[in-house]
Each structure stands twice: as C-alpha cells, then as structure tokens.
User: Fold these one by one.
Assistant:
Number 1:
Amino acid sequence: MFTGIVEELGEVVAVEDLGDASRFRLRGPVVTEDAKHGDSIAVNGVCLTVVDIQSGEFTADVMAETLSRSSLGALAPGSRVNLERPMALGGRLGGHLVQGHVDGTGAVVERKSAEHWEIVKVSLPEHLNRYVVEKGSITVDGISLTVVDAGPDFFTVSLIPTTLALTTLGIKQPGDPVNLEVDVIAKYVERMLAGGGGEPGRTEDREGRTGPEGVK
C-alpha cells in the first residue's frame, strides 16, 4: 500500500526485452537505501517487485499484462520516473490510499501556468469517469492529487511548484501518457451497491431469502 507521495524522481537505466515481459533497471538511491529482494516499489504508480539491488539501482520484472495496461511499455533508458516505497505501518498517510494497481491510462491534454501553480488537464477513459469527482482523490503517475474539475472525458489538477519540480508531471507534455488509479473506496462502494446492499457475510437466493454466506 502506498500514499501517492513521491519520494524520488528516478531514471530508467536499461530495459531488457524478455519476450512476454521486460526487465527494468532503474536508478533510485533514496528508495533503495533500505530496500531488499522481494520488496515493493511503485514506479509511476505501478507496484513492482524488487529482483536485485546494486549501487543505488534496482531491477524489476514487468509482465506483459502490466505493460499493456500501463504506460511502462513506453519507457526507455533515460526516462524519468516517480518512485515511492510502501507506507510503513503506523506511518503518516500524507496522500490517500494507493494500491499501485493501475486502472487505465490517460494523456496530458494541456497545461496552463499561473504565477504560483499550474493547471494540468488529463484525458480520462470512459470506464473510469464515474469514479472521478470534483475535489476527490486520483493517482496520476503515482502522485496523489486532488481533482479540480471533472468532465465526462477529462479531469484537471492543480500542481504546486514542489510537485512540478520533484515529479514527472513537471516535464510531461501534451500527448504524453500517464498512469491512472482511481480511489479504491469508490470501486468497493459501487460493488456493494450493485450487490443489493445486503448484510455483510450473507447471501440472497433468487427468491430473496437470505442465509449465512455460502448457504442458500
């Protein structure tokens, strides 16, 4: 579990094509300082498993499913990436609950600069628009952000100078892809409402009779 507070702007060092997967080597001295084999690190919002660590760099395998559903397939040596270690139990939840499970990809549509912040408009896939609401939370490339405006096929976020300087959103240009993860709480609420809102642990048969879960 992550919080969407990026710890470090890392860099892709190498990408190895494994046929049905890719092996990434990434530079991130901050996130690797206490990491070990098998730990998780979020890369542009995608939870990856550390395979190897050497001199401030780590290696992670990315399967075809992840490459097709996220923007990681577009990364190349030299690409900058947002890095975050999992939240420690008892730590402060600075952003919001982020799983590192990308729901889809969008793209930067436009950027508008103000004196002390910048508004970025991002395209939104149709299957995700019902989860995005004004002043709600969304994860963009692993960054926990507050939605300023939500439309049928877009949303906007307001970025402070720190976010612009320390994350990939400071360098993304119109047309560049971004990974999106919607608030997991919204998805659970939708699932429960679709199920009829019955008591937890109880099921309902076709005639509407209820009983213990698994018993009809």
Note: The chain has two domains: 8-84, 104-192.
Number 2:
Amino acid sequence: MRKKRLPLPPLLVGLLFLAAGCGVTETGPEGAGTPASGIQRPGTHADYARLYFVGPYGLRAATRPTDRLLLPQQALGLLLEGPTDAERERGLISEVPSMNGRLTATATAGTVDIYLPVNVAELEVAAVSQLTCTAAHADVPGGRRPTDVDVRFHENLDRSPAPWTVRCDAAGNAHPHTQA
C-alpha cells in the first residue's frame, strides 16, 4: 500500500525559497565601464541638421549632429556631399546631381531662395523634394514650421522675380505652393 504525501503548507514553501536564495553572492561595487553616450546631459544643447535622402520606400530624413544650427546653404552643402557610410548602409542615396559647387541658397523671413545651375525640369522629382525639405528644415529666419517655409527655385542661376515656389509637406515631399 502506498503512503499518501501531504502537500507542504504554502508558508513552508515560501520559507524554503527564501532560504535557498537566488544564487547571487554578495559583492561590493563593480565598475561598469564608460558612462552612457548618446544621451544629452540636462541643460546642454545639441544642434542637428536634417537632410533628406532617397530610401527604398521614398524620401527619408537623416539627422546629423552639428556644432550649431545650419543655414540652408550649409545644410544643402552637406546634402550635396551625399549620404555617409552609415546612411548608405540604411539604403539611402541622393538623386541630387553634384551641381559643381554652383548651387546657392539665401534665406529671409520664412523663405529660402535656391539658385540652380540647371532647369528644375532636368532634376528628378525626388531631387527637388530632397533640396526643398533639406532647405526648409535648416535654420530659416522667421520662426515658421518647416512645412510653412516657401522654397523658391531660380533656374540657371536666374534671379528673376518668377521662381518656382514649393513647400515640404510632413511626409518629406515637395508640392507647388502659390501665394493666397
């Protein structure tokens, strides 16, 4: 005949777990390596340039740390250098041609004027969006949101009063804009 086992009372089971411990021995403080990086210290300020490149699924923003806010000319200069190795690993490319250093940009209150050495029609649609959104996300005077910045393209370095005016939407695409 088999003897019936009695269940252990729950209090006794709890005491057994406490007595067993978790297998961690007592130690003093241990060095954990260098401090965390990538997180700003409270009270510090870092600036970033937001550049737009073409990815496998459309335009994508790439954020690069900078030592100061960049004017549109400076941000577009970074864009013309193309994606970094890390950005290329993410599948990002640029459709903007080199422009041979002849692209210039000026900014006034809420407006960026881009002077191109080519006609806008010669550019890929993605290149126009890259230029527009990169310029709109730079340090543009006037305190407007990037989606409210007018970006005016002047063709063949023409400073005529009839440029192409576009805006960058929230998805990173350029759309024609007319003054109301």
Note: The chain has a mean pLDDT of 84.
